Automatic annotation (TrEMBL):
<dbReference type="GO" id="GO:0009289">
    <property type="term" value="C:pilus"/>
</dbReference>
<dbReference type="InterPro" id="IPR000259">
    <property type="entry name" value="Adhesion_dom_fimbrial"/>
</dbReference>
<dbReference type="InterPro" id="IPR008966">
    <property type="entry name" value="Adhesion_dom_sf"/>
</dbReference>
<protein>
    <recommendedName>
        <fullName>Fimbrial-type adhesion domain-containing protein</fullName>
    </recommendedName>
</protein>
<dbReference type="Pfam" id="PF00419">
    <property type="entry name" value="Fimbrial"/>
</dbReference>
<dbReference type="InterPro" id="IPR050263">
    <property type="entry name" value="Bact_Fimbrial_Adh_Pro"/>
</dbReference>
<keyword id="KW-0732">Signal</keyword>
<keyword id="KW-0281">Fimbrium</keyword>
<dbReference type="InterPro" id="IPR036937">
    <property type="entry name" value="Adhesion_dom_fimbrial_sf"/>
</dbReference>
<feature type="domain" description="Fimbrial-type adhesion">
    <location>
        <begin position="190"/>
        <end position="335"/>
    </location>
</feature>
<dbReference type="GO" id="GO:0043709">
    <property type="term" value="P:cell adhesion involved in single-species biofilm formation"/>
</dbReference>
Length: 335
């Protein structure tokens, strides 16, 4: 009797699973998702470059793609579309959702859907139907159109900020609300360049080069990881900043971005050697850290900042003989 009871449980679970199933791009179950991409490049006014300001970008397009959920003996009449993102989401008062695009901007997406009232504000899951052909394997139309992006300023910026090319949403389908999402049907990608009138030029737009000549490999070993060889003298560099359209703003910040970093060090082309950069008071700038910066004051839209730089050992190991270099970018922000 116990064996018979166990068998009935197994059969029951198989029977139920025939009704819950994922959907896919119709006729292309194992194909890459249909890809849609938008260029969000815009020029903001100085007035719009303020925290909380929203600039609308319209893309009058029509996304005509179909989904299929396969054949089933079930009686379901509805299916679900899931607009999913891997980017950070903020929910604003009133339930409006926005997605972080970079450190200065977030985006609120609104889309219309053919045959549906109102607009959707993904990410979300929404039920559609009744769809009479959902169990026969027929095509389920996805007709999204009139893409509207509200670009919200989360931090005012200077010059230009890039929205990296990235997938904002992946759209899936299923016959139940909580079905595992297996086959992406289509994706929405975004990218672009946003420019504002407020602008600053560092060192008249020229590259800042510092040459430390020849250094013995043994000096890096004696220095130890994170430290400057005793034989090396830190170099000072006076950096100029000239700004325009700042509208009376007096205090700005400077921070450091690097291609490769470890802690407060820029890693060079030689993985055992790096560089540190600081202000005149030895306050080191940690690369790629938005919270590590040097404040400075503009006078008549101009400032001079004295920076210090020196090589350090990254690993404490003896580095290979040969030239080494590192490249960083100095970035100006509003405080």
């Amino acid at each position: 009797m116990k064996l018979k009871f166990l068998l009935s449980i197994v059969l029951f679970s198989v029977y139920i699973n025939t009704y819950a199933r994922p959907c896919w791009q119709w006729g292309a179950q194992n194909s890459p998702p249909y890809a849609v991409s938008f260029d969000l490049s815009e020029s903001f006014s100085a007035e719009n470059n303020q925290v909380g300001k929203v600039v609308q970008v319209y893309k009058d397009i029509f996304i005509g793609v179909s989904a299929g959920c396969g054949w089933s003996s079930g009686s379901s009449e509805y299916w679900y579309r899931h607009y999913v993102t891997t980017l950070p989401v903020t929910v604003h008062p009133g339930g409006v959702r926005s997605i972080k695009l970079n450190e200065y901007l977030s985006g609120t997406v609104l889309m219309s859907q053919w045959g549906e009232e109102g607009e959707i504000n993904p990410p979300l899951t929404k039920r559609y139907g009744p769809a009479p052909n959902i169990n026969s394997g027929g095509a389920l139309n996805i007709n999204d159109f009139q893409f509207r992006m509200g670009l919200r300023v989360t931090k005012a910026f200077i010059g230009t900020t890039m929205i990296p090319r990235q997938i904002m949403f992946t759209v899936y389908g299923s016959t139940t609300e909580n079905e595992p999402l297996v086959y992406p049907i289509y994706t929405i990608g975004v990218g672009g360049k946003i420019t504002v009138p407020q602008n600053c030029q560092i060192n008249s737009g020229t590259t800042i080069n510092l040459d430390f000549n020849n250094i013995s490999p043994n000096d890096f070993v004696q220095a130890g990881a994170g430290n400057k060889p005793n034989s090396v003298v830190a170099k000072n560099k006076n950096v100029t900043v000239k700004c325009s359209n700042m509208q009376g703003v007096a205090t700005l910040t400077m921070r450091l971005e690097a291609e490769n970093s470890q802690g407060d060090m820029m890693v060079s082309s030689n993985p055992d050697i790096g560089f540190k950069i600081s202000d005149i008071n030895n306050k080191v700038l940690t690369p790629n850290n938005i919270n590590s910066f040097l404040p400075f004051t503009l006078q008549n839209d101009y400032a001079e900042i004295l920076l210090k730089a020196w090589p350090v050992s990254i690993t404490g190991q003896k580095p290979a003989v040969g030239a080494f270099n590192s490249r960083g970018i100095l970035r100006i922000d509003f405080q």
